[in-house]
Amino acid sequence: MRFTRTTAQQDMAESLRALLADVGGTALARAWSDGDAAPWWRCWARLGELGACGVAVPGEFGGLGLGAVETAVCLEEFGYAGLPGPVVETVAVAPALLAGSADQHRLPELAAGRAVLAVAFDELVPRALDADVAAATYRCAGTRVLRADPVGAPERSVDPVRRLWALGAAGTAVAGARPAAAFDAGVLGCAAQLLGAGRRLLDDSVRHVRDRHQFGRPVGSFQAVKHHLADVALRLEFARPLLHGACLSRDAGAGHAARDASAAKLAAAEAAHLAARTALQVHGAIGYTAEHPLHLWTLKATALRAAWGDPAWHRRRIADALAAGSTADIGTRS
């Protein structure tokens, strides 16, 4: 089984990387954090023109109708750029939640990049991300899905660009919505974001140790530094095929798709966490300052590690699946 990107998928990633580099991910994140959403919306509209916002939206609703692998490719690049906002909820969760439901009429505006959606799940995602900018907010309570409004004031995440909103207990039920499928779409989307953030942390660290000199030599020439960065690179490279395989399991409708999603999220979360710790170590004191761009990616990796189920929860889900006899290979149909 092929666990690497096709030429088309790689071309998609490179196009998104070029666009996001052009709009300036750091400046975009800082503006969003300061309450200025206008630059973000301009970027989101351009992503909509490329088809990235509707990559998983069925073709009859104006999307590309592609699979989980292509969705992960997009979200990995969003994570690499540090793109704020409810991107996982809009790109990955909304098509899985709303296709075939009473609210599927919202999908065209999501695919076009004209709107975003916010979602909360009572058990593991109790707050809706950036619900104040969403065209609709949904609360998934077990097997029920409600259109529920945000209440109170937003709560601050450890990541300053994330605003978390509680949703009201009352709301209108949405017939035909699929919360279980939507949750695992969010898990895979978060794993892709983490992989992208981890890659960005590694790339920034490598650039820093090449430029910074001590004792008349680049810091990156010291063997201990090389070993730390090599460990990060290995973790990220091991996480990538797990994510790809989990996406294939989801697209195939495999019975072990939930187990595979947890494996991908766990591997990506731990890889990004190691990348953040190593980046702080090799950058030194400057990496701890809020003014340095590293600050954005380390805090994002920390927040995403706990989002959509923390590592302990995903370990339990994997263990429960294995104990129940789920031993099929990741990425297979059986």
Strand content: 5-15%
CATH class of the domain at 179-323: Mainly Alpha
Count of DSSP E strands? 9
So, the CATH homologous superfamily of the domain at 179-323? Answer: Butyryl-CoA Dehydrogenase, subunit A, domain 3
User: What is the CATH third-level topology name of the domain at 179-323?
Assistant: Butyryl-CoA Dehydrogenase, subunit A, domain 3
Going across the biggest sheet, name each strand in turn: 1-3-4-7
Largest sheet geometry: 4 strands, mixed
Specify the structural class. Answer: alpha+beta
CATH architecture of the domain at 179-323: Up-down Bundle
Shape: globular
How much helix, percentage-wise, in residues? 55-70%
Uncertain regions: pLDDT < 50 for 5+ in a row?
none
